[in-house]
Give the backbone structure.
Amino acid sequence: MEPRNKILVHACCASCSSHLLSCLSKRFEVAAYYYNPNIQPIGEYLQRLEEMKKVCLEFDIPLYEGEYDPGAWWQQIEPFRHLPEKSERCWRCYAFRLEASSAKAAALGFGLFTSTLSVSPHKIHKIILKEGEKAAKKNGIVFLGEDFKKKDGFRLSVEKSRELGLTRQNYCGCLLSLEESKNRKAR
Ligand code: SF4
């Protein structure tokens, strides 16, 4: 296969990846990249990683794990800690993970990369697209900028993750989002 036909998929969690990996593997030679230093506590990070392994085994897709360095991630996010979810705080978080994923794709010889981030209705596609394209350009590759929540993508990912017995997380990943989720429940 030509390098352009190989795609590295930044995967935020197994439930968002399930339907998407199944679809993309019909179009490309796919590998997944679990790079999420935003996820805390560590137990949650490891639990999501285990579920990613299960999904990748199911679809016979190689899985790479990135470095888990919440400190480096926090350095980027800390100035925006007082902002709510779906703000600049999250734009920086997308950018941080997309940049590392793009560099990993290029290092592995993949001509394309993308991310499961747009599967979630809580993520802003136009920002993911902007940051994905910026990161791809920096590494001389291409970002597949489809909005994967479209064409019923989110609903189908919920169905697929139920079918595979995966956990659907009740918070995005960082401790700030965990706190926000608790506050929402309390209201
Ligand atoms: S809510 Fe999600 S996207 Fe936003 S900063 Fe936290 S982990 Fe990142």
Remarks:
- The helical segments are 14-24, 42-59, 70-77, 88-107, 125-138, 153-163, 175-186.
- Residues 119 and 149 are 4 Å apart (CA to CA).
